Amino acid sequence: MPNYSIFLVNSEFANHYYYRSDILYRFLRKFDVYPVDSIHYKQSRYVTSEIPVREVMDYLARCHTGENAFEKKGNSLRIEGQSDVAELLIDGTCIYGSSSSFSGAEKLLFQYFRRFNSRFFIIEYDSDNYGWISPIGKRHKDLNTRLLYSLL
């Protein structure tokens, strides 16, 4: 079962580090081990945005009405498709998840997260995969024109 964390990155950092995702990965992969009073923890809180827990849970519930088994308990969810299962724990700073397969996570979760906000950054710990939930083409509305020209 792949385990992953999903972070909502501030727009300033999402724009600046879109093509430097390896730097963001190295910084965020140790998110859980930072002591609360450390400078790394404070920096990670500055780089990431607060995740609107209720909005995300309500949005996912609306997306899965009728087609999949959807169980909501506190800040955790369990979604069962025909052959896939995904479980999430939504914290205010990070979404922790596991699924039966990466394709199952894509089918049950990631396609909906992509529509909710394009600034989600995903880290899969089992295989050290990481990346943005949405390609730059889908995020062009969020980018500043000057930034776009400076990258060319």
TrEMBL record:
Organism: Sediminibacillus halophilus
Name the record gives this protein: Sporulation inhibitor of replication protein SirA
InterPro entries reported for this sequence: SirA, SirA_sf
Pfam families: SirA
Domain of life: Bacteria
